[in-house]
Amino acid sequence: MPTPRRTQKQRRDQAEAALLAAAAELVVEQGVRSLTLARVGERAGYSRGIIAHHFGSKQALLELLARTAQAGFVPGLADLPPGLDRLLRLIDGYIGELGQVGAARHAFLLLWAEAPTMPELAPIFRERDESFRADLRVEVAAGIADGTIRDDLAPEEVAPAIVGQLRGIGLQRLLDPPAVDTERLRRSVTEQWRRALATPSARQP
């Protein structure tokens, strides 16, 4: 049987995925400062014209890499309603995923660490962090509304504390993997947040 011809969208999606994978690998291997569109195209087996057509600029490439690496980081959350249980599942799952981080997520954490000193990265990661904090604020507010999270807590204060802890664990894992046992940490950190956030009636797992 002849192989069905791919549609233009399928070809574009395949090229984009290959270019993003190549960009992530190069960030991990050589750092973001040495990344160029030409090197990404060469690694992925595409011409510079193709990568310029897809992304237009290095900044656009990095922005899409950051978005795709962060999207769906913790699977299985969509089936849970917003609130304490989903928030704790996110914390547990996030730390668990750090233990098996691939090139794209490794690259995301490296880019995030570089963002404060790179003007082209700073806006991207301000937006990514605010998106993460906004999602967490929704979870905390929902938990307060349904009585599972203490009502003396402020979502806008809880959210950056959680982001800071999770990102910090991720960076430590990149620097010294043997020193950061994510399987043990995921249980203890999740329980710490349960005790800190939950109302007395919701403290039992």
Characterise this structure.
- With 205 residues, this protein is mainly α.
- It has two domains: 8-56, Orthogonal Bundle (Arc Repressor Mutant, subunit A); 72-202, Tetracycline Repressor, domain 2 (Orthogonal Bundle), CATH 1.10.357.10.
- The chain has nine helices and no strands.
- The chain has helices at residues 8-30, 37-44, 48-55, 58-70, 84-98, 103-114, 122-146, 155-175, 182-197.
- Helix 4 (58-70) crosses helix 6 (103-114).
- The protein is elongated.
- The protein starts with 7 loop residues before the first helix and ends in an 8-residue tail after the last helix.
- The model has no long low-confidence stretch (mean pLDDT 89).
Low-pLDDT stretches: none
CATH topology of the largest domain: Tetracycline Repressor, domain 2
Seen as an oligomer or otherwise, the chain set is single chain
**Name given to the CATH homologous superfamily of the largest domain:** Tetracycline Repressor, domain 2
Strand % is under 5%
DNA-binding region: 36-55
Protein name: HTH tetR-type domain-containing protein
GO molecular function: DNA-binding transcription factor activity; transcription cis-regulatory region binding
Domain HTH tetR-type: 13-73
